[in-house]
Design a protein that fits this description.
Belongs to the Gfa family. By secondary structure, the protein is mostly beta strands. The chain is built from 2 helices and 11 strands; from the N terminus they run βββαββββββββα. It has a single domain, classed as Beta Complex (Metal Binding Protein, Guanine Nucleotide Exchange Factor, Chain A), CATH 2.170.150. The N and C termini lie close together (9 Å).
């Protein structure tokens, strides 16, 4: 089990299952939602993701049709995203985790949309100009 929280600690959550492939997304929506060059995300099974405090502080925003981004309404921290047509899945923002999830990034995605001022490191990770193959988005590990 690994815990996570928003900046103000009003929202706290736990992940009790495996974290799927960690990706660094450079799309314009992730950049704007996080205020950074990229967002580091990983899928987890929805039943392995539990809000333990502050459910009433979570606000969701539909950033594009069928994709909801959840954030703390008090401090603005991005927490996860979800798709109503994929209720079994949450994409957790790894920057909100309190400890080491044990998983490491495997790819940079949407690098065709990266910020012009950003430079990609020579880190050996796979690179995709746009969306990667499905497992990168939708394959969390088995629930515990």
């Amino acid at each position: 089990m690994i815990s996570g929280r928003c900046l103000c600690s009003g929202v706290r959550f736990e992940v009790t299952g495996e974290i799927g492939p960690v990706v660094q997304c450079h799309c314009s929506m992730c950049r704007r939602a996080n205020g950074t060059a990229f967002a580091t995300n990983a899928p987890v099974h929805a039943d392995a993701f539990r809000i333990v405090q502050g459910q009433e502080l979570i606000t969701e925003y539909e950033s594009s049709p069928g994709r909801l981004r959840a954030f703390c309404s008090r401090c603005g921290s991005p927490l996860y995203s979800r798709m109503p047509d994929r209720p079994e899945l949450r994409r957790v923002r790894l920057g909100t985790l309190d400890g080491d999830p044990g998983a490491r990034p495997v790819a940079h995605i949407w690098i065709g949309a990266k910020a012009p001022w950003d430079t990609l490191p020579e880190d050996g990770l796979e690179r995709f100009d746009e969306a990667p193959p499905q497992p990168y988005y939708t394959s969390p590990g088995p629930p515990r």
